[in-house]
Amino acid sequence: MEKNFDLIVIGGGPGGYVCSIRAAQLGLKTACIESRGALGGTCLNIGCIPSKSLLNLSENFHKAKKDFNNQGIEISDIKLNISKMMANKNKSVQVLTKGVEFLFKKNKVTYIKGKGVLFSKNDVVVYNDNKKESYKAKNIVIATGSDVASLPGIEINEKNIISSSGALSLNEVPKKLVIIGGGYIGLEMGSVWSRLGSEVTVIEYLDHITPGMDREVSKEFQKILTKQGMKFRLNSKVTKIKDLIKFVEVEFTENKTLKKEKIEADKVLVSVGRSPYTEGLNLTKVGIKKDDKGRIEVNNKLQTSIKNIYAIGDVIKGPMLAHKAEEEGIAVAEILAGQAGHVNYNIIPGVIYTSPEVATVGKTEEQLKLENKSYKVGKFPFLANSRAKVNNETEGFVKILADSSTDKVLGVHIIGPHCGDMIAEMALAMEFGASSEDIARTCHAHPTHTEAIKEAALAVDKRPIHF
Predict the structure, then answer these.
(1) Out of 62, 444, 446, 466, which one is annotated catalytic?
(2) Known catalytic residue: 446?
(3) What is the predicted pLDDT for the residue at 205?
(4) Which CATH number among 3.30.390.30, 3.30.565.10, 3.40.190.170, 3.40.190.10 corresponds to the domain 350-460?
(5) What is the DSSP letter of 383?
């Protein structure tokens, strides 16, 4: 195998494989090192993709069981075959990972299996099955992603105390499931198992779920999830989790009253965030600086303290999102090819793929208040949207925040049907500096869910038509 490259990317997740493909397209001799044995990283193998498969399948099951009869579609004897559902999820993952391998071949990216370790600014050694191979590169990109975080003193054993990976592979529906952490991942997994029959309780340290999200949307989201059967213990600190084999005992303390409580469950999902995966890369020895959170420090060109070594994705600051890593990967490849690679961090959408979905881009009301920014608000409920009405998907609303003086859109927050797709329109509008009036004057097809966006834009100027 060739040993000298223009670029070596360590990590084959969304950031790493996208960076590799774009660099190869731009004429750089590129290699990508991946230790998992399959490309796609956490996202494709044990994250975004398998979770969306289970979210879709569990929603179909729930609708067939709970909703269809009321809508004139009469079905009896509906059964859940969990092993078939998991097999369907696994097949989707396998097809997509093989697809990334095909893209590597198509774009002439060299795929190296094993763990990549830095030995100098130009030398990478790959360890695989007690063998080691040395490679040289003019430039190196660190794209090793992140790993599951836990709480002090709590060991995730993937039996009864599980991570998101374990929650994607359960072979039966737990009667009681406790989730530690009210963020995106925990709520998605809670939603899956709640639909399939689990009694789900979420314990969150803060007094609200989805930290960092627009608070009005967060409140509405919790209200909807509660109506769906999920229970919430907010403002509570988990102090101990005991795996007693037949069940798990969770001890927690209410932050204000300091009252101590216990709850029992069949499974406990620890979902308290993720940590950058930077161990074992020889970063300190090579001279690459990290911040106090263990993230690699980079400049605005994504260069580390060693100028020909770059870092992207979950190992650097910013939201731990696959699409953020992809944007950074493309930016680095284009910078290396002499182009003006750039990432607009103000316009990175976030989506929670529950039912209804939650999508957000730009500033929240809380952020604008902290910045003393004068803004206007336009809201429109899906209850008044004709397509949502006929589809029995009327929960939620669109909320647009615009600058009081210039009318420029500063943030958009949606809870409702298909908003994970709808948010793209608003990200594009914001990328081009659109005003709420620009959106309000753009013709939207009828009847569609996206009309709620147009109406919310009209509502910024207090002139919605249908509400």
Answers:
(1) 446
(2) yes
(3) 97
(4) 3.30.390.30
(5) G
